[in-house]
């Protein structure tokens, strides 16, 4: 039985061209070594499933299969149910006898969400009846992270595994987390059976394989969905479509890549607003609904005989000829090179304006889903190219499914919290139902859809509302982790730069989290709920994973559990925010009233009254203004938002989107991951050196030695710039003193309240003195320059008097 960690480094051995030229004295050529740390490599015959909290998975099993269940984050129960091939509960399918009811799966099925609908559909598809089922329940409150239980399959049947949980109490930290399921097959399947297709997203209309080096044509009706699946990973598929009504009129107008790029303003259409692909008459034919890969090509034609001829492979099978063959049935004229949407092709343009390609990003099971906007004739291929990296040098199959028009598939891309994590489709926050009535302009952020700007007001009005009145913004994608246990304080003290031992219950502190070399993992806030209870809120999942890994490495009795999906939050910011919220936040007599809450403190509360929706309110924000954040369980989000919105009308409340949020945070000198800092930037270089109290924090913490060295020998510094031009500068613009480049802009904006053009920039320490005159390079960095002066930051309210007020 496999007993390694859930994440592995996959090793791929290839022969490199350079090795062929080694001299004979060096012996035989050595193979190239390619590491793929983001991909899970499993032993032969093993399958892996990650079951999200509140989710389930249904898998056929055979006698002798070994099942291994891993509690990834700790304290999470899991239910295993065996049913026979007819779908009836069978206590003998699993070697362990049932020890509990099946209330977990019943609870999941009773929910009104997409997970419940998928579970219902999967059970129905297999005629499974669990009304009288009992389960093998494993793990519990004392289960440590990484705890493993093994069960053997005693009789052929079907395994139903689920991860039950209750809605998290905002104070109790009883979140529901993921379980990892491994199945080591007793029978090693032939290669043709070994690759598992993902479960259909609904009952398919068409469901067929496009075998390697072939193509298939098919028709769909308006509104139907087309799902193109990369079966084994790193396999490309060309797609083309024609409107049937135009074919009937003798017009063969397929998808036009140039028109599509022009109308979307994107290199390829993506889920969201720029999602449609057009024909040469600018009529939309398909809309991209879901995409789990994110890297495709709409510049090149489908591969054709000319390409292979010129490469020295005359007669090589190609997608264009395959298209011509299968489109004969629709009397569509043959072409020498078919324009197409080239899915999973990893094509890009380099700095020299040259097109290049490499191995696809797609992994097994990745897919693109489109919606037909009219009746279509379609064609798709499994590209045959085996002479370069286009298909990872080894062409495989594509699978295609279509679904009825009445299905409701959400628009989504795929988000992976880490390179090796399972893809998660873009989610809607709990406040989406309310905010989506005010705008359709959404953008993907950290795995969620967030408003970019709102109808009627727009970012300029939203900006002024934040500075003069008050705004409400959705910050639910922030990552939340519950850190609990007798060693929780020791863990936090070791993993973040601030002195957590000085933090009292009900206080919040802003801090950095670093790697050993001093580079930043993340910035975030630590909430102390009690002596052994903390909540970490940061920008990405790597910080939570770092906490869990360090707890395991050090042998600390501390649990680190993800609560992001259980705790959504809005921020109410601006001069009127206190007056607004004190009308709707009720707190217990032993807690501070809303108007008594000091900066970087929090309190549990209720909406309006003792029996109202439970919330946690913190006096924190990301605006440079007086402000608060309200955290609640998703089930209470509409109640919370409605209360804020109703009372906020008399205080001039407006919604705030990401565009305006970026402006106010730049003015306030608030740093943003990927702009002001990354894993090569230490907190001093990121402008938040105040989060590293090297003199007052005696305890060791990760990166301390490196940060001492880097503080003593600074190389770069984050500064403000006042720009002597109204031309906007942005991230990545080079900064020069004379000919050499001495830094770059990290963020820039035209400040309405300050009436000047400003920026944040990281400069070589030799040129970071205030008053230094610099030039910002545009175009090639030399042909056009914009003068600027180095100044302190924040530009707006440098003494932080407004948020402290």
Keywords:
7-stranded mixed beta sheet, alpha+beta, 46 strands, globular, disordered N terminus
Overall form = globular
Indicate the structural class.
Answer: alpha+beta
Sheet bearing the most strands, described? 8 strands, mixed
Q: In angstroms, what is the radius of gyration? A: 29 Å
Q: What is the oligomer described by this structure?
A: single chain
Ranges where pLDDT stays below 50 over 5 or more residues in a row are 1-24
Give the strand content: 25-35%
Number of contiguous helices: 16
Ends apart, CA distance between termini:
61 Å
How much helix, percentage-wise, in residues?
10-25%
Topology, number of strands: 46
Query: pLDDT average, as an integer?
Result: 93
Q: What is this structure, in a nutshell?
A:
By secondary structure, this protein is α+β, with helices and mostly antiparallel strands.
Structure description:
- With 805 residues, the chain is α+β, with helices and mostly antiparallel strands.
- Helices cover 16% and strands 31% of the residues.
- The strands form ten sheets. Strands 12, 14, 16, 17, 21, 23, 24 and 25 form an eight-stranded mixed beta sheet that branches. A seven-stranded mixed beta sheet has the order 36-37-38-39-35-29-40, sandwiched between helices. Strands 41-44-43-42-45-46 form a six-stranded antiparallel β-barrel.
